[in-house]
């Protein structure tokens, strides 16, 4: 039997309730493959936090990376054990971003709205109203939002549930195709006020996990594209090198 209950969402990096003076609080979560995590995954959360603080006027109590379950079966996925460890290394020096292992340790694939549901329940189970009332924001690239327009990939009821549990915070991603652009615009129109677009994000970069895997496979540098500890881990374990 797998002891999935042992993998609790970590709350240790959340802003202590006694330091929260704002009435409106937010928790940010980034769900993805993280195969491997890149600097842009981390920068996206930093830029999302600034947007929520300065534009939406809320106190951000924390940020989480939620690596997808192995059962997602995306061809580029390596085992969750490696992806979790790389994510832990990536956020080790962050005072506010942590890794939520719950999704990766479930016995099957977890649709993203369930990840948010689980976070909501976790916050409700604390004794702190400042955390309990935190609004959940799923942070991702505009490509993630565009993908939600495709019912074959994202069943509409999953998107509806997701936007009942929380809101979306999208960052620009370069090299979007016209089809993706159109899908993104349709999503913005379909869910007014539920999708926030950080159009003026100070840093927009064409960095993806795919790029890092390609760099490693051809023996090229990934320095500064991911934290040094992640780079070292990739080399030590000879990941992505075939
Ligand atoms: N350069 C980037 N700018 C903005 N968002 C990004 C960037 N890279 C990744 N993201 C977002 O991070 C989230 C997690 O994505 P994921 O781990 O699947 O990354 P990816 O780099 O797109 O992966 P892959 O290249 O393997 O498809 C997604 O919402 C994705 O849009
Ligand atoms: N129906 C769903 O909830 C659904 C569908 C597709 C992708 N996702 C999520 O989106 C994230 C990014 O996936 P990709 O790496 O395939 O873009 C992952 O966390 C994945 O679980 C969720």
UniProtKB/TrEMBL annotation:
GO biological process, alphabetically ordered: NAD+ biosynthetic process
EC number assigned by the record: 2.7.7.1, 2.7.7.18
Domain Cytidyltransferase-like positions: 31-214
Catalytic reaction list: beta-nicotinamide D-ribonucleotide + ATP + H(+) = diphosphate + NAD(+); nicotinate beta-D-ribonucleotide + ATP + H(+) = deamido-NAD(+) + diphosphate
Pathway it works in: Cofactor biosynthesis; NAD(+) biosynthesis; NAD(+) from nicotinamide D-ribonucleotide: step 1/1
Pfam families per the UniProt record, alphabetical: CTP_transf_like
Single annotated GO MF: nicotinamide-nucleotide adenylyltransferase activity
Alphabetical keyword list: ATP-binding, NAD, Nucleotide-binding, Nucleotidyltransferase, Pyridine nucleotide biosynthesis, Transferase
Gene3D superfamilies: HUPs
Signal peptide: none
EC class: transferase
PANTHER family: NICOTINAMIDE MONONUCLEOTIDE ADENYLYLTRANSFERASE, NICOTINAMIDE-NUCLEOTIDE ADENYLYLTRANSFERASE
Family to which this protein belongs: Belongs to the eukaryotic NMN adenylyltransferase family.
Protein name in the entry: Nicotinamide-nucleotide adenylyltransferase
Organism: Cyanidium caldarium (Red alga)
């Amino acid at each position: 039997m797998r002891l999935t209950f042992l993998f609790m969402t970590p709350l240790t990096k959340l802003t202590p309730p006694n330091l929260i003076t704002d009435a409106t609080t937010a928790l940010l979560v980034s769900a993805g493959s993280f195969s491997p995590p890149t600097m842009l995954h981390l920068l996206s959360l930093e830029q999302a936090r600034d947007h929520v603080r300065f534009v939406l006027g809320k106190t951000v109590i924390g940020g989480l990376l939620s690596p997808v379950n192995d059962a997602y079966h995306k061809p580029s996925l390596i085992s969750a054990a490696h992806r979790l460890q790389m994510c832990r290394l990536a956020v080790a020096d962050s005072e506010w971003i942590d890794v939520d292992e719950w999704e990766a340790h479930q016995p099957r694939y977890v649709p993203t709205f369930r990840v948010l549901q689980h976070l909501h329940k976790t916050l409700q189970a604390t004794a702190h109203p400042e955390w309990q009332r935190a609004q959940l924001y799923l942070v991702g690239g505009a490509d993630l939002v565009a993908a939600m327009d495709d019912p074959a990939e994202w069943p509409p009821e999953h998107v509806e549930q997701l936007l009942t549990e929380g809101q979306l915070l999208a960052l620009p991603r370069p090299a979007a195709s016209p089809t993706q652009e159109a899908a993104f615009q349709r999503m913005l129109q379909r869910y007014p006020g539920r999708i926030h677009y950080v159009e003026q994000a100070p840093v927009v970069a064409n960095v993806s996990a795919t790029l890092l895997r390609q760099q490693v496979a051809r023996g090229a540098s990934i320095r500064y594209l991911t934290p040094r500890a992640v780079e070292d881990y990739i080399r030590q374990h000879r990941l992505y090198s075939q």
